[in-house]
Write a structure and sequence with these properties.
Strand order of the largest sheet: 12-16-15-14-17-18
CATH architecture of the largest domain: 3-Layer(aba) Sandwich
Keywords: ATP-binding, Cytoplasm, Disulfide bond, Nucleotide-binding, RNA-binding, Transferase, tRNA processing, tRNA-binding
Distance between the termini: 49 Å
Family: Belongs to the MnmA/TRMU family.
CATH topology of the largest domain: Rossmann fold
Shape: globular
Protein name: tRNA-specific 2-thiouridylase MnmA
Subcellular location: Cytoplasm
Number of strands: 18
Order of helices and strands: EHEHEHHEEEHEHHEEEEEEEEEEE
Catalytic activity: S-sulfanyl-L-cysteinyl-[protein] + uridine(34) in tRNA + AH2 + ATP = 2-thiouridine(34) in tRNA + L-cysteinyl-[protein] + A + AMP + diphosphate + H(+)
Length: 382
């Protein structure tokens, strides 16, 4: 079988190529360039990564291909990324990149080149039960990436191999070293190529100009000035620039809400303050691995951020999204991020978080009272 591997120039995709080759597949590598450097974005690691990918393919004796998907990435991922930040939300571009680029544009190109399946170095697993494909967590729970893959469907999973899903990361590096792969000691990439190791706020300011405004406590006290509410995320501690204040105590300050229309950033002291907690969220329309929801109402576990421990919850499927009610209060659940649902090791699917019942979970502070938030306290409309 001819398999096109998305080879990134990192150790994971390098070992994925090795494993596929040892399993008897006819392996070829395709390097995806998803970003164009310019004066705003600054340097990216694309050139160095491409050279490493070429070296790995040469070492293994497999064909190398390269394609530039920067235009597709800009239209399908980056413009959405910017639009979300402009509204005050905090998007997760990796989820959209997987759905729109790695398992759509790349898949189409691989088929055009004659491949029957594609493969990547993601830490996840796929199996088929009763004729339906399932996305499973990786054996290495510390590296599991099913969270970022929850928007895939049956067609993508039927065409995909994840060679590393059953391996622990230390073993991956051992195999790379033993095989003499030039990437065996390469540092794992983190974050997004178009941001890399640079200051995130500085990068974003090239596309969304700074708009300074007031930084206030939930009680309305003015405590400082922010550079633009879109640059901050719920639960953020660093970069607030709030010095010691008379009578405020020594606890650190955290972002607890944003009022984009009024350009006000709300902050409170203490990492466990009540303003950060919620028990309910509403999402946008979900994606289901199986193509349909398990039921209109069901119990499962959920993660609202990558590497979060499973949180027990009840899910109700509505006409316009999901209503998720957690058994325990959740900290800093952030609109724009994804809630991903699991049944044990099986990923059911997920959706983008739209709002929560935290005091500022809907991004605007005003709202009705409820048993969770008594009258006089702001509550998000969920």
């Amino acid at each position: 079988m001819r398999v096109m591997l998305g080879i990134s120039g990192g150790v994971d995709s390098s070992v994925a190529a090795l494993l596929l080759q040892e399993a008897g597949y006819q392996v070829e590598g395709l390097f995806m360039q998803n970003w164009e450097e310019d004066e705003r974005s600054g340097p990216c690691t694309t050139d160095a990564d491409r050279k490493d990918a070429v070296a790995v393919c040469g070492r293994l004796g497999i064909p190398f291909h390269a394609r530039n998907f920067a235009a597709e990435y800009w239209d399908g991922v980056f413009e959405h990324f910017l639009a979300e930040y402009r509204t005050g939300r905090t998007p997760n571009p990796d989820v959209l990149c997987n759905r729109e680029i790695k398992f759509k544009t790349f898949l189409d190109e691989a088929r055009a080149l004659g491949a029957e399946k594609i493969a990547t170095g993601h830490y996840a697993r796929v199996d088929c039960k009763d004729g339906r494909y399932r996305l499973l967590r990786a054996v290495d729970t510390a590296k599991d990436q099913s969270y970022f893959l929850h928007a895939l469907g049956q067609q993508q999973l039927a065409a995909t191999l994840f060679p590393l899903g059953g391996m622990e990361k230390p073993r991956v590096r051992e195999m790379a070293r033993a095989a003499g792969l030039p990437t065996h000691a390469k540092k794992d990439s983190t974050g997004i190529c178009f941001i890399g190791e640079r200051d995130f706020r500085g990068f974003l300011a090239h596309y969304i100009p700074a708009r300074p405004g007031e930084m206030r406590t939930p009680a309305g006290e003015l405590v400082g000035e922010h550079q633009g509410v879109m640059y901050y995320t719920l639960g953020q501690r660093n970069g607030l620039g709030i010095g010691g204040r008379h009578g405020a105590g020594g606890e650190a300050w955290y972002v607890v809400g944003k009022d984009v229309a009024a350009n006000v950033l709300y902050v409170a002291q203490g990492g466990e303050n009540r303003w950060l907690y919620s028990r309910r969220l509403r999402s946008e329309l979900p994606s289901w691995i199986d193509g349909i929801a398990p039921a209109t109402r069901f119990r499962c576990t959920a993660c609202t951020r990558y590497r979060q421990a499973d949180q027990a919850c009840e899910v109700e499927v509505t006409d316009d999204g999901l209503e998720v009610r957690f058994d325990q209060p959740q900290r800093a659940v952030t609109p724009g991020q994804s809630v991903v649902l699991y049944d044990g090791e099986v990923c059911l699917g997920g959706a983008v978080i739209a709002a929560t019942d935290a005091p500022y979970g809907g991004l605007l502070p005003p709202f009705q009272s409820s048993p969770t938030h008594p009258a006089g306290e702001p509550q998000a409309r969920v």
